[in-house]
Amino acid sequence: MSSQEPAAKRRIYLVDDHPLVREWLGNLINQEEDLVVCGSAPSAPEALEAIPALAPDAAVVDMSLEHGSGLELLKNVKAVCPGVALLVLSMHEESVYAERALRAGARGYLTKRETTQKVILAIRQVLEGKIYISESFAASLAQRALEGGSGSGLASQDLSDRELEVFEMLGKGLETSQIADSLHISVKTVQTYCLRIKEKLNLNNAAELIRESVRWHDRKERG
């Protein structure tokens, strides 16, 4: 092989339920000399089928997907393709999902409010096997450690990953059947999660559960 031959490009897979985001991110990555997008999907099932077959070097994943759960997708990809570097690019604040995403297998987390330069920097960093989080979130983790691990909100700390997803969907106004369809679980399973959420948050009935989920979702959206 000639010493002048360029190195192979690192292959990136995109998972986001918004076509415009996939197009924007794809164009951004493909402008880099050493990176190329090898595929994309709007849903967790499609991504989980394609990623093992394509074997990308990294995958950029959103938390909110057309079908399925971003957190579950991270766990599943990590289990079947441990060599794929996972980076979350999400509209959700770091305080809600970043720590959970890292535990699920992601090497980095950034929000969609970041600059394009930060996105490329994060991709390169996870490709190198490093962790990417913002300076503010790193400081928050350090502060929590100093304070003995106290959390930033009852719901985000006390609920399991799936319970938090159901709680958030309730706050968005989704019906039980819509949540079941989105997460590919039964209505009965969603109802079981709702019961667990009520117990953990000390809520007395469904009306209180809906009211609390809407209040929490509104606070989160305001940042």
Fold blueprint:
Layout: E1 10-15, H1 19-30, E2 35-41, H2 44-54, E3 58-61, H3 70-80, E4 85-90, H4 94-104, E5 108-111, H5 116-127, H6 135-146, H7 154-158, H8 161-171, H9 176-183, H10 187-200, H11 206-222
Parallel strand pairs: 1-2, 1-3, 3-4, 4-5
Helix pairs in contact: 2-3, 8-10, 8-11, 9-10
Task: Walk me through this protein's architecture.
- The chain is of the alpha/beta class and 223 residues long.
- It has two domains: 10-141, 3-Layer(aba) Sandwich (Rossmann fold), CATH 3.40.50.2300; 154-222, Orthogonal Bundle (Arc Repressor Mutant, subunit A), CATH 1.10.10.
- Helix content is 56%, strand content 12%.
- The chain contains eleven helices and five strands, in the order βαβαβαβαβααααααα.
- A five-stranded parallel sheet has the order 2-1-3-4-5, sandwiched between helices.
Largest sheet: 5 strands, parallel
Query: What best-fitting shape do the alpha-carbon axes yield?
Result: globular
| Class from secondary-structure proportions | alpha/beta
Please tell me the CATH architecture of the largest domain by its name: 3-Layer(aba) Sandwich
Overall mean pLDDT stands at: 86
Into which percent range does the helicity of residues fall? 55-70%
* Strand element count: 5
CATH homologous superfamily descriptor of the largest domain: Response regulator
CATH topology of the largest domain: Rossmann fold
Gyration radius, rounded:
19 Å
CATH C-level category of the largest domain: Alpha Beta
Number of domains: 2
Poorly predicted ranges: 150-154
Order of helices and strands, N to C? EHEHEHEHEHHHHHHH
Helix run count? 11
Ends distance: 53 Å
Residue share in β-strands: 5-15%
> In order across it, which strands form the biggest sheet?
2-1-3-4-5
